[in-house]
Design a protein that fits this description.
Layout: E1 2-7, E2 10-12, E3 18-26, E4 33-39, E5 46-52, E6 57-59, E7 67-72, E8 77-82, E9 91-98, E10 105-107, E11 111-115
Parallel strand pairs: 2-11
Antiparallel strand pairs: 1-3, 3-8, 4-5, 4-9, 5-6, 7-8, 9-10, 9-11
């Protein structure tokens, strides 16, 4: 099993910044993609950013230029640096890990990000 623990969420004013962390533990071998998703009340969960084992990154159009996903392999941790936050960014942010073989799709518990004045 893979365990993911997110942290770093909180209340921030519009235009502010946060850095979310996702610490992975357990059977973390062969994890090829680590992703950040978010879900606001009444909306479906959406991809925010993803990073592959090779370091390639993907960003949602809504956050391009404002967020950066990175990883620290020594710490088995993935980060999401968010700048220029908007009220529309308010959501619960979830970390996801996918392992194609032998299989597995894992989620963290989520961390709340609230952008409000």
């Amino acid at each position: 099993q893979v365990q993911l623990v997110e942290s770093g969420g909180g209340l921030v004013q519009p235009g502010g910044s946060l850095r979310l962390s996702c610490a992975a533990s357990g059977s973390i071998f062969s994890i090829n993609v680590m992703s950040w998703y978010r879900q606001a009340p009444g909306k479906q969960r959406e991809l925010v950013a993803a990073i592959t084992s090779g370091g390639s990154t993907i960003y949602a159009d809504s956050v391009k230029g404002r967020v950066t996903v990175s990883r620290d392999n020594a710490k088995n941790t993935v980060y999401l640096q968010m700048n220029g936050l908007k009220p529309e960014d308010t959501a619960v942010y979830y970390c996801n890990a996918h392992r194609p073989l032998p299989g597995g799709d894992y989620w963290g518990q989520g961390t709340q990000v609230t952008v409000s004045a």
